[in-house]
Every structure is written in structure tokens, then in C-alpha cells.
Amino acid sequence: xxxxxxxxxxxxxxxxxxxxxxxxxxxxxxxxxxxxxxxxxxxxxxxxxxxxxxxxxxxxxxxxxxxxxxxxxxxxxxxxxxxxxxxxxxxxxxxxxxxxxxxxxxxxxxxxxxxxxxxxxxxxxxxxxxxxxxxxxxxxxxxxxxxxxxxxxxxxxxxxxxxxxxxxxxxxxxxxxxxxxxxxxxxxxxxxxxxxxxxxxxxxxxxxxxxxxxxxxxxxxxxxxxxxxxxxxxxxxxxxxxxxxxxxxxxxxxxxxxxxxxxxxxxxxxxxxxxxxxxxxxxxxxxxxxxxxxxxxxxxxxxxxxxxxxxxxxxxxxxxxxxxxxxxxxxxxxxxxxxxxxxxxxxxxxxxxxxxxxxxxxxxxxxxxxxxxxxxxxxxxxxxxxxxxxxxxxxxxxxxxxxxxxxxxxxxxxxx
Amino acid sequence: xxxxxxxxxxxxxxxxxxxxxxxxxxxxxxxxxxxxxxxxxxxxxxxxxxxxxxxxxxxxxxxxxxxxxxxxxxxxxxxxxxxxxxxxxxxxxxxxxxxxxxxxxxxxxxxxxxxxxxxxxxxxxxxxxxxxxxxxxxxxxxxxxxxxxxxxxxxxxxxxxxxxxxxxxxxxxxxxxxxxxxxxxxxxxxxxxxxxxxxxxxxxxxxxxxxxxxxxxxxxxxxxxxxxxxxxxxxxxxxxxxxxxxxxxxxxxxxxxxxxxxxxxxxxxxxxxxxxxxx
Lengths: 416, 279
Description:
In chain A, 41% of the residues lie in helices and 10% in strands. Chain A is α/β, with parallel strands linked by helices.
């Protein structure tokens, strides 16, 4: 099989991993090939709206596991291929030199054993760094149950590591990924966190101390393949963010795959739900929300028709209206339609002038949503809607538009 | 009113400094776009250098305090193609040095708003250029040389030059644009005149491999054309080889999805637990 055929099979098999981030790591160029500037670049976009930043491939899609949601499970009749270490190194360098990519995201099916597989991934990264002097971005999968010294070696060469949590709960794993255990996955995450923390404190003392996965670790959760609720999902995310200091949890709407297991939902992926989960995730990380404020026992799933901040505000009308000229940062962050960057702009602006509706529209605040929740220096008739039964209807129209046109931008900037 | 044609940020800074010393109110001075007047209005106004030659000597010693953030902003706005940029920058400078030192914090002020908008557009343009330049490999004088042709929205070649020099320091490369060209020979950056697309190589054999990758990483079950077009507008497509196959990918997507959802497991040929050994 030639390299191009392998690439087709092994890129196709890797595309269900949502992460394509190439930010958060700085390596100066000059010597060798490439650099990492700390800011990720998206070199292309496919018609599914996702960015192409890294060469995202599997080393092989042979796998000894039988995870039902995975196209590469042992019982699938999908075509199989395996790259040699050399082929991956050459492909990465060739693509990088033409400015197609920021670097490599290498994952793999599990062959022979977790240790053997991890060794192969580490070898690719080692050869790129040492033999090719490659200073671009490298993201490696951290394979649960692989020996800790292999995780240490991986973090030494790579910018980011990720061990996938796969599904929201242990019971989901039992159902769909019988070979995987939550406790093993978390153990790998804990090891990564330990070494990242250690390297960071070393670097505070000695500037030249070697970095360990300087862009940190992330994980991915497939959603919509089991019955788990958004409450289960967000609770798991919140826990992982605090326990292992993850940079990101990626949510991947379960997407029909070739040669699918008949126990899986054969329908189009729940993209809107995935989008709402990302919004909720952003609320937890940048807007000071707790998971328990976003989803409640009465409504364990996110409302697909409303962004979660808007839904929260409608449930908590007693806290509004908020005076845009007096409220503190924490409360401004909770106003629907105002993003983190605009909160910062508002705080600066109001030291110099009293903020009016016209100012907010210039800042491109989503006024239709925000207006009923705000008091401004001028007359804001919309605030009378706050006690109206029609409030949701009146503000939701704007929502519809947002979905059609702004969803992608929001997903990348996190402003909503 | 005095009219002066300005081309670059450094020229604008010299002219603005002199005008400020002379106490020229923004309404009394018109800083025109030197790139425009060069071709369209050859006789209008002064050039920056003739204006500077007539200024009294004291200017060199004068010193104005402006926030560092203004200089950063101005360097980006200076690369915008909009004709009125030099006047806007001078107006901002005038106001910053005349009783409004905090002006930049008033983001909804007309002048600040416009400057931030142009800055954002230029920033985005530099970002896109870093991402969308596509090198093609060729052999020149027995060595590997990478050449790209690219058309940017604004005059950002000099803004992005350090990025490419750092990233591709170990390669010989040239980036050609209609405005100017940029060349790296392992030691130093050289700027040259603009060049037409025909002066760059028209193929690279690796592009077939890149297109294969692009096609395979695309998921036909989640089409979001608005998202793609927002981030990769069509005006960039002519120099992005992978965009040639987008129509085919879209045409085949519904069929591929239908096949995937219809097919249930037959488990006819499970993979062996062992993969073949490296060849």
C-alpha cells in the first residue's frame, strides 16, 4: 500500500477527534525547522466548518479494543493500514515546509499493548525533534495504561498530550467501550498533571528547565451515543477541569460512521447539542458559572433553543435588570448577549462616560437579547419586558439569527 | 490647507511630528495616500520628503508622549488600504496630545471606533496571510527553493515578514505578492518589487497528497458551509489548492452519509489483533 492510500485511511480514521488546537506553546524558530508562536493558526477549513491546523492522523487503525462507537474497533470491517514511523516524519515535514500545517496530531489504535503503542508515538515525536530539528506543534495521544516513563517521554517531546475520557460516565463505558475504564484514563491524566505542574515550578526557579507538554492536556467526550444527560456531561467536565487542570474538554457529537455497530443511533450528529455544550463549558471557564446553575434537576438537559446564559437569566429574572454603569464585573458577565471582551470594554468606557444604548450597539453587544436585562444612562424601554410573559419569545428571535450566522464564530471566540 | 502624500508608517510619523510641533490642527492638513496619488494624482500636494525639507529645524528635538498602545494601533492601521487612514491617525494623535490622553479607552468614540475597526481588519489579514500562503517546491541552482504567490487584502507583507523568517529560517523561500516580494536566503530578509502570479511555479507534486488529506479529514455528516465560508472566504480560494476539490466533496457527501446510516454491522471480516510488522 502506498503512502497516499495509507493517508486516506488513517486521516479518515482520525477525524472523529475534534481537537485541532495548535495554541498555547511557544518555541522560537531560527535553528531547525518551524516555530510555535503561542497563537494557533488554522491553515484551511473543510466544508464541515472545521479548521485544519494539524496533520491529524493515526499511526495505525488496527486496534485490539472493541469500542462500539469507534470506526476502528476490532470488530469493524473498515479497511486497515499502518504508517511506519519514517512515513509520518516525512509527511509532517513535507506538509510543514509548504505551510499547510502547524504540526502533527498523532493518535493510534492500540496494537499489541498500550506500552508498545505509546512507544511508537513517542518515537515519531523524538525523531521529529531530534533528527529533523522540528520546532512546530506536536500533539500526542496519551494512552491509558501505558507506563509512566513513556508518558514522561511523550511530554518531553510534545506540546500537548490528551487522554480521551471517551464517554460521560463509567456506565457508558461499560456499555460501549468494555475494554476501557474511567479509573485508568484518569490515572494517565493525573500523571500528566503531575509532570506539567512539576515542570512549571521548575521553570519558575530555573529559566532553562525543560518544558513538559507546555500546551497542557485536553480530552474528548463523545456525546449523543448514550443516554447520559447534559448534567452528567457537565459534571464530568467540571470535575476534570479541577482535578487535572485540563485546558479543554472537546465535545464530539456522535457522528454516523462507516461499518457502524447496530446498537448506535443511526442519525445525523446532534450538532446543536454539541454547540450548547461548548457554550455551557465556556460559561464555566470564563463567566464564573457553576455546572449546577446551568443545568438543574428539573431540566437536566440544556435547552436547544436558547443559549445557556440566556436560559439562566430567564430563570433568574429577580437578579435583573443590571445597571451597566454600576454593576460589578461578575454580574455584567451574567448578562445575556455580553461577552467577556465587551465586559472589559464596558468597565473601561464607563470611567469616562455614562454608557447609553448607542454605545452598546457600537460595541456590538447582542442588544436584542441584552436590552431587557439592562439599565442604561438613557431611557431603555425594553427593560419593561423583564416582567413580561413574552420575554422569551421577544428575545429568542435574535437567537435564531445567531444560530444561522454566528455559531461558528462563537465557537471559536467563545463570545456570546 | 496643506496636502501631503504619505506612503509608510515611518513617513507618517515624521510628518505628524512636524505638524504637531507647528501646531497644525487636523482640519488644516490633509494627509493623502501616497500609493494612490502616485498613480492617480501625480501632481497633488507635496510628498512627505518635500514637506519635511521645508520644516524648521527645531522639530527634531521635540518630544510628545503618547500611549504605547497608540503606536501599536497606528502600525496596524497604517497597513490598511483605506485612503483616509493617515488623516484619522493624525486626528487621534492630535486629540491624544490635546487634553484627551485617555481617548483610546473610549472605544465607542467615532475616531477610536474606526481606528479599532481598521486595526482589526489588518490583524485578521496578517493572520490569514500566515495561514494561507502555500509554498511550492522548486529546484533553483541545485537547491530546494520554496516559492509562493499570495494576494493580501491590505499591505501586510512587512508585518508578516518576521513570522515567516522565524518559522522557515532553515529554508530558502520567496513570497511574491502584487505589492512587494519577500525573500529569505538563510541569512537575511530582502524586499523587492511586486510580481504577477505567473512568476511563481504553477505546481507542486505534493499537492495531490495534501488534497487527499483534506478530503479524508472532511466529515460528510456535518456540513457547515457558513462556517467554512466565514473563515475562508472565496477570494482566498485561487491560491489554496485544496479548494479545487470542495465541489466534489459536497456533491458526494449525501450519498456517503446515506451509505453510512444504512449499513449495519455485518462483522464479516474482523481485523486481526496483530498489525503487520513495519515494512
